[in-house]
Specification:
alpha/beta; Rossmann fold; Rna Polymerase Sigma Factor, Chain: A; seven-stranded parallel β-sheet; 15% strand; globular; binds nicotinamide-adenine-dinucleotide; binds magnesium ion
């Protein structure tokens, strides 16, 4: 029996992971489930999957969860807070950890899983964007197995030869595909009027609200470029982004001899999740087979960086190195949250991130403390920008 901890079990990725696990109850047992606030939803999953441990964000949520579970006769041990997240991610009783918390909050527990030498199924791209070198070093030093769950990186992983430098030398570039989100063809002059619900209505994927907004600004692809840099040791100039509105080709690897390998499939996160769970085997993910005749034409185009300034900012941060990607990520998290709360316009997201990035000092990202400090400062600076924007008479 393979035991798994799911960090962020109530989210979109968490739910899809539980769906795959449910289909293979003979192979997988759930060791721990975590959630931030959705106690009822977590309780229902604990009642179904009977994990040994469950973690929530606050003492109140823990009391509520405990009451629900005891009433249902479930003995899952309940705890709360950051230390508990790190503990369930590194427990000796778990084999794999699905890192599916959204944002910087996932960094410490994901890193704890790597340091405990777990098999880490990485959905939480923000953790890797922030801590790149530190995280990859931890994976190597502690013998962890890192399997990318982000669909593009999972595709590239599938298209790359085994982890052998002799073969990796033949790779010319990696090509990340992007759907272009809901505003790919919208008149740029009207982008400032977009509402949070419009931004979250992704044409091909159903995802959490933060990543949905990131897809609409294409910051998501920017974060993925940085993620690809760390996962595959690819320099910025060997990472290309192509818009592919159908989301059928999930990404590609181009080789020196002119070959291009791609991974295709219907857009459903259960495919990369099942791949990560069973690797190197393949199991049923509950995803229907791709019908290319039905899919029709597949289109590709270069992204318009004027329409999607966040993508350009992410490339800037990657080239700047050091803590710049952590600064980019933190400013983006604050700006996206403010947009989702109705506090700023859609187009302000890129303005805030650009402003924070431009004014932040760039140190080497040589310790977790330095990275977390840069993250905190960038958040303060982004909040100051927000303040300025919301009080500005020029709006
Ligand atoms: P979501 O918002 O649906 O779920 C987020 C989960 O994280 C929830 O379980 C929530 O309880 C938990 N969480 C939120 N804040 C927390 C905090 N402060 N402390 C502890 N837990 C917290 O998000 P999602 O769409 O499932 O995305 C999760 C991660 O996976 C993100 O990093 C995202 O970029 C990545 N990802 C998602 C998809 C997708 O299709 N949804 C695809 C690729 C990558
Ligand atoms: Mg992706």
């Amino acid at each position: 029996m393979h035991r798994i901890t799911i960090l962020g079990a109530t989210g979109s990725i968490g739910e899809s992971t539980l769906d795959v696990v449910r289909r293979h109850a003979d192979r997988y047992a759930v060791h721990a489930l975590t959630a931030h606030r959705q106690v009822q939803k977590l309780a229902a999953s604990c009642i179904e999957f009977r994990p040994a441990r469950a973690v929530v964000g606050t003492p109140e949520a823990a009391r509520e969860l405990e009451a629900l579970l005891r009433a249902a006769g479930v003995t899952t041990e309940v705890s709360h807070g950051e230390a508990a997240l790190e503990s369930v991610a590194s427990d000796a009783q778990t084999d794999s950890v699905m890192a599916a918390i959204v944002g910087a909050a996932g960094l410490r527990p994901t890193l704890a899983a790597a340091r405990a030498g777990k098999r880490v199924l990485l959905a939480n791209k923000e953790a890797l964007v922030m801590s790149g070198r530190i995280f990859m070093d931890a994976v190597r030093e502690h013998g962890a197995t890192l399997l990318p769950i982000d669909s593009e990186h999972n595709a590239i992983f599938q298209c790359l030869p085994a982890n052998d430098q002799r073969y990796r030398a033949g790779v010319a570039k990696v090509v990340l595909t992007a759907s272009g989100g809901p505003f790919r063809t919208r008149d740029p002059a009207t982008l400032h009027d977009i509402t949070p619900d419009q931004a979250c209505a992704h044409p091909n994927w159903v995802m959490g609200r933060k990543i949905s907004v990131d897809s609409a600004t294409m910051m998501n692809k920017g974060l993925e470029v940085i993620e690809a840099h760390w996962l595959f040791e690819a320099p910025a100039e060997h990472i290309e982004v192509l818009i592919h509105p159908q989301s059928i080709v999930h990404s590609m690897v181009a080789y020196m001899d002119g070959s291009v390998l791609a991974q295709l499939g219907n857009p459903d996160m259960r495919t990369p999740i099942a791949y990560g769970l069973a690797y190197p085997e393949r199991i049923d993910a509950g995803v229907s087979q791709l019908d290319l005749a039905l899919a029709g034409a597949l289109n590709f185009e270069k992204p318009d960086l004027a329409r999607f300034p966040c993508l350009a900012l992410a490339f800037d941060a990657l080239r700047a190195g050091g803590v710049a990607p952590a600064v980019l990520n933190a400013a983006n998290e604050v700006a996206v949250e403010a947009f989702l709360q109705g506090g700023i316009r859609f187009t302000d997201i890129a303005r805030i991130v650009g402003n924070v990035l431009e004014n932040a000092p760039n140190n080497a990202a040589d310790s977790l403390e330095t990275v977390l400090d840069a993250d905190q400062r960038a958040r303060q600076s982004a909040r100051a920008c927000l303040q300025e924007l919301t009080t500005s008479v020029l709006r």
